[in-house]
């Protein structure tokens, strides 16, 4: 059985992506939730289990084999359990899905910095900075293109739930948390993401976590 080390469900976007990828494998796996930034955090991340990732989560251990970084975890699991579980079958759809996942992984710095994930909260709508507005427009444009070209009759970006949806799931929760206005097609897509059983399970379990990180609890509209 492999083991996934993750941070707080309430706040850790990259953990959520890695965990969604593990759920998609259909395999039983052990999960270790490590509260980020508590008094033990620095000491814990100096331990052997955290060493390969320089102390960041998620980290997947399978015996001696270790894979860190959410996107690497997706690819590792796709190799092992079948690419079709993670990526669209058709080349141009898969090319776009991979590009969107990579753009999420390396981009949208303003959104990531200014709107930290908090799946337990929903704040009044905030005023968006111009750089963040541009990033949100780009995300909505990508979602619209994927849905129009490849969504077909399915609910997700490329029809079936895939790794691109996993990568954007924490964006969906951020849009909800900070009251970001979206066009109706995006609202429908976001509802589908929130209703996906794995996403719903993640959000559900986050409600019972005892830990609070003050900096992620700030109402930015206030
Ligand atoms: N690029 C990495 C990012 C991992 C990452 O930054 N994880 C955050 C939690 S969401 C973390 O461990 N932060 C703790 C820290 O930087 O001390 C991935 O995709 O997994």
Description:
With 222 residues, the chain is of the alpha+beta class. Helix 1 links the parallel strand 1 (2-6) and strand 2. The mean pLDDT is 96. The chain is globular and about 45 Å long. The chain is 50% helix and 8% strand. The termini are far apart. The chain folds into two domains: 2-83, Glutaredoxin, CATH 3.40.30; 87-205, Glutathione S-transferase Yfyf (Class Pi), Chain A, domain 2, CATH 1.20.1050.10. It has helices at 13-25, 41-44, 70-81, 91-106, 109-114, 130-151, 163-177, 184-195, 197-207; strands at 2-6, 29-33, 59-62, 65-68. The longest helix has 22 residues, at 130-151. The protein binds glutathione. Glutathione (GSH) binds next to helix 1 and helix 3.
Topology:
Blueprint: E1 2-6, H1 13-25, E2 29-33, H2 41-44, E3 59-62, E4 65-68, H3 70-81, H4 91-106, H5 109-114, H6 130-151, H7 163-177, H8 184-195, H9 197-207
Parallel strand pairs: 1-2
Antiparallel strand pairs: 1-3, 3-4
Helix pairs in contact: 1-3, 1-7, 4-6, 4-7
The protein binds glutathione.
Glutathione is lined by residues 7, 12-15, 36, 55-58, 69-71, 105.
CATH C-level name of the largest domain? Mainly Alpha
Cofactors, ions, other ligands:
glutathione
Helix content: 40-55%
Q: Distance between the terminal alpha carbons, to the nearest Å? A: 46 Å
User: Segments where pLDDT lies below 50 for 5+ residues?
Assistant: none
Kindly list the characteristics that best describe this protein.
222 residues, alpha+beta, Glutaredoxin, Glutathione S-transferase Yfyf (Class Pi), Chain A, domain 2, 2 domains, four-stranded mixed sheet, binds glutathione
């Amino acid at each position: 059985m492999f083991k996934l080390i993750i941070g707080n469900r309430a706040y850790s976007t990259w953990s959520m992506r890695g965990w969604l990828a593990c759920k998609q494998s259909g395999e039983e796996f052990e999960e270790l939730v490590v509260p980020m930034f508590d008094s033990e955090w620095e000491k814990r991340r100096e331990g052997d289990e955290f060493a390969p990732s320089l102390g960041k989560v998620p980290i997947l251990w399978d015996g001696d084999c270790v894979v860190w970084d959410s996107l690497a975890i997706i690819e590792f699991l796709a190799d092992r359990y079948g690419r079709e579980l993670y990526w669209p079958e058709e080349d141009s759809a898969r090319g776009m899905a991979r590009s969107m996942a990579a753009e999420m992984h390396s981009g949208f710095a303003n959104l990531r910095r200014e709107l930290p994930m908090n799946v337990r909260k929903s704040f009044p709508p905030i005023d968006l900075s111009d750089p963040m507005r541009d990033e949100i427009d780009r995300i909505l444009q990508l979602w619209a293109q994927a849905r129009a070209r490849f969504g077909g009759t399915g609910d997700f970006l490329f029809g079936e739930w895939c790794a691109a949806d996993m990568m954007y799931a924490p964006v969906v929760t951020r849009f909800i948390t900070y009251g970001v206005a979206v066009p109706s097609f995006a609202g429908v897509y976001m509802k589908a993401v929130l209703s996906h059983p794995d996403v719903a399970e993640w959000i559900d379990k986050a409600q019972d976590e005892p830990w609070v990180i003050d900096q992620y609890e700030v109402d930015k509209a206030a």
